[in-house]
Design a protein that fits this description.
Elements: H1 15-27, H2 29-64, H3 67-71, E1 73-77, E2 83-87, E3 94-102, E4 108-110, E5 124-134, E6 139-142, E7 149-153, H4 159-168, E8 173-180, E9 183-190, E10 198-206, E11 225-227, E12 232-236, E13 239-243, E14 247-252, E15 255-259, E16 267-273, H5 275-300, E17 302-303, E18 308-309, H6 316-330, E19 346-348, E20 354-356, H7 358-365, H8 368-376, H9 387-399, H10 404-469
Helix pairs in contact: 1-10, 2-5, 2-9, 2-10
Length: 470
């Protein structure tokens, strides 16, 4: 931009102020454009908020249209200190009695007292084999497909060394050392409960030449005391069943029972639909719908008292969305004893919000299949499908690429781009005007300076002429 260091010297005018005022007039449209841009940006944010709320409504509708929501069940025990129960979704309602006779046990063994404490046991080989014991008569049946594990003991190994070797052998048995008043003992325990997961420890070889006496390595076996493994035993409706663990899976179809303690009396276990899950899903849907409704009400309202309009007051797309949501809500469902949400206690209030009558809803849930149909029945008809299916499909259309929100967002962003371009044009024009004004005033300043010099010369000459003539 061409400028002069002191514009107005020749004219004695405040050229800079004059130019600034004229340029400001050229820029005046910027005020309206900036306000318009701020409004568009706020609308983009507002529709972003509504989109997020529609997404939450879609999630709530998906939950209400999911079979999992209605298949949820509760399994309860009348005495959880004896037995606990869980059930998978879809398990039929049922009631039965459970009596716990005994809990599952792991086999355990304690060797005889070993002296001297910390002394070497003697060289040889121990063998561990998993399997099942029959107590009467006493016999051992090895597990099929599971071979024995041999533990090689050196002449200097102590009972602590032997325990360490057993633990490192992955033989299905854990070992530890007990120190008591009589000396040391090797304690063994099977890692798994149940009759089929017992074990036998034997001496394959003993350096003292006798694998059956109470000396050398064989003293770990000879004189040992054993508590044999046992299955858990319960009675279901007086029918005895057993398990290698305290957990009984599918003894009752779909139900998992866990024995906690033996009992002399039976415990009642019941399986019933979990109405809480459905109630929570309905409340979540109501909250999601109300959030959108309140946002749209606030953005499209006109306050006659203050004569102020909401950001989207008069916006046809926002008003259309609000009407469409209410239209889906008010449509009827075919194939259920309940045609509308109001039939189960979900009613629309003044202003469009939904409210839940918990008493009426609880009564309706006693007829759970009909409530399920109200929300998720598929009639292949968008007008009569279940309420949740309608909202799920409606919100999916709004949220999809090329749908309501992406189209609205693109439109608003295009308006913002055009606004930016217009502001750039206004600024460019103002710059050109400023440049031209300063150029003209510069030229005028030069001319007036020249005339001022000529005037001084003429005045000087007239003064000289007057003196000469005098």
């Amino acid at each position: 931009m061409a400028t002069i260091s002191s514009p107005g010297i020749g004219t004695q005018l405040d050229v800079k102020s004059i130019v600034t005022s004229l340029v400001d007039l050229e820029k005046r449209p910027l005020d309206a454009l900036k306000l318009q841009a701020a409004t568009v940006q706020t609308k983009i944010s507002a529709f972003g908020q509504i989109k997020s709320q529609v997404s939450a409504l879609s999630d709530a509708a998906s939950t209400l249209s999911s079979l999992t929501t209605y298949n949820s069940v509760n399994a309860t025990s009348s005495n959880t200190s004896v037995v606990t129960a869980t059930a998978i979704g879809g398990t039929a309602a049922n009631n039965f009695s459970i009596k716990v006779d005994s809990l599952a046990k792991a086999q355990s063994t304690a060797s005889g007292s070993l002296l001297p404490v910390g002394g070497a046991l003697g060289a040889g080989t121990l063998r561990l084999q998993l399997g099942k014991w029959t107590v009467v008569p006493l016999s051992f049946l090895p597990q099929v497909g599971v071979g024995p594990v041999d533990i090689v003991v050196s002449a200097t190994d102590t009972v602590t060394d032997v325990a360490s070797k057993i633990n490192g052998a992955n033989a299905g048995v854990s070992a530890t050392v007990l120190n008591d008043a009589s000396g040391q003992r090797l304690l063994l325990r099977s890692k798994t409960t149940g009759e089929s997961f017992g074990y036998e420890m034997s001496v394959v070889s003993d350096a003292d030449g006798n694998a059956a006496d109470a000396a050398g390595l064989s003293r770990l076996v000879v004189g040992a005391t054993t508590q044999y493994a046992a299955d858990a035993k319960i009675q279901v409706n007086d029918v005895p069943v057993s398990s290698s663990t305290n957990t009984f899976t599918d003894v009752v179809s779909g139900v998992t029972l866990t024995a906690v303690a033996p009992s002399t009396t039976a415990v009642d276990v019941s399986v019933a639909p979990n109405k809480t899950v459905v109630t929570e899903a309905i409340n979540k849907f109501v909250s999601a719908f109300n959030a959108i409704n309140q946002t749209l009400n606030e953005l499209t309202k006109y306050d006659a008292g203050t004569k102020t309009a909401g950001l989207l007051q008069g916006d046809s797309t926002a008003i259309g969305l609000q009407s469409a949501l209410r239209g889906v809500l008010q449509s009827t469902t075919a194939g259920s004893a309940y045609k509308r949400l109001a039939d189960i206690g979900v009613t629309q209030q003044l202003g469009g919000d939904l409210a839940v009558d918990s008493t009426k809803l609880s009564a309706a849930l006693a007829n759970g299949d009909e409530v399920k149909n109200l929300f998720r029945i598929d009639n292949s008809n968008t007008l009569t499908n279940g309420v949740a299916l309608k909202f799920k499909k409606f919100s999916a259309g709004l949220l999809e690429a090329g749908g309501f929100f992406s189209t609205k967002d693109a439109s608003l962003k295009r308006s913002l781009e055009l606004n930016t371009e217009e502001q750039a044009r206004v600024n460019a024009k103002a710059t050109r005007v400023e440049t031209n004004l300063y150029r003209r005033y510069n030229a005028l300043d030069v001319q007036l300076n020249s005339l001022s010099s000529l005037n001084a010369y003429v005045t000087q000459q007239i003064t000289l002429w007057n003196k000469s003539s005098g």
